[in-house]
Amino acid sequence: MFFQIFTWIFSSLLSFPGMLQRLPIQDENDIQRLSEVPSMVFNDGITNWGRIVTLISFGAFVAKHLKIIKLEHCTRQLADNFADYLMTQKREWIVQHNGWEGCVEFFHVEDYESGLRTVLMAFAGVAGLGASLAYMIR
After folding, report:
1. 1.10.260.40, 3.90.230.10, 1.50.10.20, 1.10.437.10: CATH of 2-107
2. Which is nearest to 63 in space by CA: 38, 31, 21?
3. How many Å apart are CA 65 and CA 82, to the nearest integer?
4. Most exposed residue of 9, 74, 104, 109, measured as fewest CB within 10 angstroms of its CB?
5. Could you tell me how far CA 23 lies from the centroid of its own chain?
6. Residue 68 φ then ψ, to 5°
7. Which residues are CB-neighbours of 62 under 8 A, at least 6 positions away?
8. Is residue 66 exposed (0-12), middle (13-18) or buried (19+ Cβ within 10 Å)?
9. Whole-angstrom distance, CA of residue 97 vs CA of residue 49
10. Separate counts of helices (H) and strands (E) for the chain
11. C-alpha angle 86/91/97, rounded to 5°?
């Protein structure tokens, strides 16, 4: 499940430039069209943390583009549009899934290296204990 969502997010990140080209932004009036993007992301009725994070990431990508084209003052409107959608249309889902803590928990990746280190240290400790006992028995 995590791998599928990661793949979906990664493919979305790669497609952001193409998405932006289909939504040409040249002036402040074009920002209003971007308010339709959140409903497009969730138009199939599926809500998950991957899609929410992708929407927020796309908003950040567009904000960076707005800065480049000297429309930096429009980033607030963009952020408000995306946040309003999430807090009105997806609020219940977000609350049911523990809000920000649920998102962090969902994307938490175990540190396998420290787990492996613990196992190896335990093995070394048991082997050392066994060697000590064998030496003392002699």
Report:
1. 1.10.437.10
2. 31
3. 16
4. 109
5. 23
6. -65, -40
7. 20, 25, 34, 78
8. buried
9. 9
10. 7, 0
11. 110
pTM over the 0.85 mark: no
DSSP 3-state helix, strand, coil percentages of the chain (rounded to 5)?
A: 85, 0, 15
Best CA proximity match to 13, nearest among 51, 52, 46, 54: 54
User: What string of DSSP letters covers 4-67?
Assistant: HHHHHHHHHHHHHHHHHHHS---SGGGGGGGGGHHHHHTTTS---HHHHHHHHHHHHHHHHHHH
Which residue is it, tokens 């093995």? 123
Domain boundaries, the chain: 2-107, 111-138
2-6: Cβ within 8 A, 24+ apart: 2/107, 5/48, 5/49, 5/50, 6/50
